[in-house]
């Protein structure tokens, strides 16, 4: 049949348990999902995100998800490189919602809005 003997034994056991239902294609999703950050690592991640990236010798003053993945690996908070989505999902588990930084720069100049809207040559 071109497959391993254990694969055949697994198919026989599945047939004995579920009958013809075992022939239907199932999900390829893993049955268990392991959280990348648990326990102490979770608290270290939270503390890291409340620290300026400049404290970790990064040129930015605001933390992005990608920067958080880089720093968490460099600091040993995560044993392997994770994605920004992993950081976002971890924060969601903590009921913390990641928000993009907003531009809060304002000028005391009363003509600021007019000057800002004017294209420069």
Helix content: 40-55%
Strands, count: 0
* Secondary-structure element order, N to C: HHHHH
Q: How does the helix and strand content classify structurally?
A: mainly alpha
- Unreliable spans: none
Which radius of gyration do the C-alpha atoms yield? 25 Å
Write down the overall mean pLDDT.
85
Multimeric state of these chains? single chain
Count of DSSP H/I helices: 5
Shape: elongated
> Cα distance, first to last residue?
73 Å
Task: Outline the fold blueprint.
Blueprint (H helix, E strand, L loop, with lengths): L4 H14 L21 H10 L15 H10 L9 H10 L18 H6 L4
Which key phrases capture this entry?
single chain; mainly alpha; 5 helices
Structural notes for this entry:
There is one protein chain. This protein has 121 residues and is an all-alpha fold. Helices cover 41% and strands 0% of the residues. It contains 5 helices and no strands. Helix 3 packs across helix 4. It is elongated, with a radius of gyration of 25 Å.
